[in-house]
């Protein structure tokens, strides 16, 4: 019998309320593909469940592993309240297996018209993404506790999604697509770095070796300030190199970036919704800029 209360807990723990921010990354990949290919195939819709399932794995296991490690404060970790819906560890792993099946199944539907070699490439990409989503949280690797592990893992997860979107539309499987054509990708590192900085006291209980803990608050806060400055410079440079000034639209988020930095440097946990909003606005404006060229 279907337990709708547990499904509600799964939705809560998967943090689907952040859907628009999370999907803004593959949408950038879609717009890059449309710019180069001139169209977006219907099969692109099959990728959306793939990306949602990918986010679900990372988020729900993050909630489970941090809950079991007893390192989070429930008042500031809303996704942990999924356990109030009666979810158990076994239930969560069943949802993870379901998400993995969704990722492979819908990836096949999206790329079914591609060659066997291309499909193998796609499944390798998907497998890599699943590995990152699981071992970002799961011992013994628990990448989020390693030095620069959280930043690089989250960055690569979004690289996979931008590149897969671009590959579906253009057939170009280059791994460098996200690095070359999406200057805002560096802001994802900024995002997770702020999260680690704000939560550094809780993370110490988990034996974390994150940048704020290893290098100290002064070094981490300097990176939090300098990273978006670099991102804004790369955005402007991209608009000049590709002769599309509309891709400067994301620079309109500079006042919000300043506000977010001011909160993060004070380690105020209320900053979290604002840096998700910043990423969503930046990505959306960049996608609009690509389409307006």
Automatic annotation (TrEMBL):
One of the record's GO molecular function terms: prenyltransferase activity
UniProt entry keywords in alphabetical sequence: Membrane, Transferase, Transmembrane, Transmembrane helix
Pfam families: UbiA
GO biological process: menaquinone biosynthetic process; vitamin K biosynthetic process
GO CC field: membrane
Primary location: membrane
Keyword set includes Transmembrane helix: yes
Transmembrane parts of this sequence: 92-111, 117-136, 148-168, 180-198, 219-236, 242-261, 273-292
Topological relation to the membrane, as annotated: Multi-pass membrane protein
Protein location: Membrane
This protein's name: UbiA prenyltransferase family protein
Organism, scientific name: Polysphondylium violaceum
């Amino acid at each position: 019998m279907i337990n709708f209360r547990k499904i509600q807990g799964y939705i809560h723990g998967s943090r689907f309320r952040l859907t628009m921010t999370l999907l803004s990354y593959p949408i950038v990949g879609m717009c890059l593909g449309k710019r180069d290919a001139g169209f977006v195939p219907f099969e692109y819709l099959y990728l959306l469940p793939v990306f949602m399932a990918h986010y679900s794995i990372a988020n729900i296991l993050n909630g489970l592993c941090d809950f079991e490690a007893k390192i989070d404060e429930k008042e500031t970790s809303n996704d942990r309240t999924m356990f109030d819906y009666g979810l158990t560890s076994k239930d969560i792993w069943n949802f993870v297996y379901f998400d993995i099946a969704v990722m492979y199944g819908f990836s096949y539907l999206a790329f079914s018209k591609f060659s066997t070699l291309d499909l193998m490439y796609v499944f390798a990409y998907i497998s890599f993404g699943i590995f990152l989503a699981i071992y970002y949280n799961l011992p013994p690797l628990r990448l989020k506790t390693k030095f620069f592990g959280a930043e690089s893992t989250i960055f690569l997860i979004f690289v996979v999604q931008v590149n897969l979107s671009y590959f579906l539309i253009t057939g170009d499987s280059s791994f460098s697509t996200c690095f070359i054509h999406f200057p805002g990708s560096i802001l994802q590192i900024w995002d997770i770095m702020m999260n680690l900085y704000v939560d550094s006291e809780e993370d110490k209980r988990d034996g974390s070796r994150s940048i704020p803990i290893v290098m100290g608050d002064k070094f981490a806060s300097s990176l939090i300030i300098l990273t978006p400055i670099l991102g804004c410079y790369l955005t402007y440079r991209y608009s000049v190199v590709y002769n599309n000034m509309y891709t400067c639209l994301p620079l309109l988020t500079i006042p919000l970036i300043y506000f977010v930095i001011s909160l993060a440097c004070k380690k105020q946990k209320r900053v979290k919704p604002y840096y998700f909003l910043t990423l969503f606005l930046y990505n959306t404006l960049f996608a609009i800029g690509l389409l307006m060229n």
